[in-house]
């Protein structure tokens, strides 16, 4: 997720907004410096296209101007970049020092202390909490002072636990401090996070303290290592001297959900990540002072990091932190929130939008969405997107389209040769480093090199396939490792999944072992609530659609209708789990604690068994 350029789909409610031209944008033609002040002084830059060219040809000058204008530095950097993609070496703004909290809080308190920084959209609608920049800075300082008093030093790793498999991550990160809450609240349900932390920390001898905040009034057992966080923060001063951090000091490590095996900790550093999050938040979403920005992603995932927290706060924005689910208390929750909070930019997960498709359009139309200027589906560090562009520039629903400034995508064939024709399809790579990219995998830089740098030497491999149109627009076609080999024909699962009939809300396709074909195609589908179709009719429609658009050999052997698909809290479908069920490897299901609702797996197992019995 962290490296995905953009979603390959913008689905029904978003598509209508796009087709009706409701996405606003500033004009780039003839007055680039008026739209992007950082670009003032760039020779020969007169519009978006020439700015794009400048950002590639003069990368150091471009990124230096961005960094000097958008970030507040404690001391200046010596070198803009020191990168070698062949060796997985990525360093930006070498020698510079800054503090991320100063950039996100202190400098805004000087100019707009009473501006709302955070709107905490609690699980229960209408119970939102607003926090100003002044209040957020004081809270941050109190927590910083508490951590310092309790022995946390510069460079230490602190684990913030919301809801993921924990023990293995703590051990890998060598973390001695954990922060959690007594309970999580989501979709009207209470999640006993403290109990999970206790069980995990019992197997992590390096942990010496656990800070516990109280999200609910439910008391929890406090052990000797536990610290009542709010009580202790109340005793701390509201001023905390910020530390000067090197540009390449670690900002955070974000662990994968573990959906493809052992979790890996992707490392992001201070200056480059903050700059890229700030820049993309400002220009992709056309954010202006006074707007209310609503990213409803899980704050614990990379999209939440970039576009709930770091990007908006670096820009002095008002940002919404969404605690609930898209369907609590009903499927109109997103749009009710838009109406009540007057959200101007809405950024949601494509999986969430697909989920809402099954409930119909009436929930969208029920609420006033006139405050919305921009709609988008999420990724953690936007590299390709329809905006920024001129207001009248074409937008193709569901297509990634235009590279962001400083991003140089290329398509590469199986021999590693760059495809230079306008219309082409291949592996999507990035030809030049950019400041927001991850630096390494914690404790395993070789794995980082092998995964992202070695497949196509000299390029950063995204793991995606893509196509490019005659106009130069990019379309993400899906993960290249999501490929099924049927009788020697290699088929991307995304190609099959795109063949929906009108009754289908979302689907997931996997390959399974087939005695004759090598691999067969097994499809899981979730129907819309109002779907009026028999199972035989559905199966025939889907088979016919795939046969017509791809080939008969790609037609699914099995089509299992499910009420829901197993997903992580970040919305990622756990295809590994689906494969294990179909291959009847239930012992290999592994850790399911990252799932939004683990009971979905049992439903899939029962449905699979019923389908097999029916087709025997």
Automatic annotation (TrEMBL):
GO terms for biological process: acetyl-CoA biosynthetic process; lipid metabolic process. The keyword Lipid metabolism applies. The keyword Ligase applies. Residues 106-162, 163-377 form the AMP-dependent synthetase/ligase domain. Residues 501-572 form the AMP-binding enzyme C-terminal domain. One of its GO terms (molecular function) is propionate-CoA ligase activity. Its EC number is 6.2.1.1, 6.2.1.17. It comes from the Eukaryota. Belongs to the ATP-dependent AMP-binding enzyme family. This is Propionate--CoA ligase. It comes from Neogobius melanostomus (round goby).
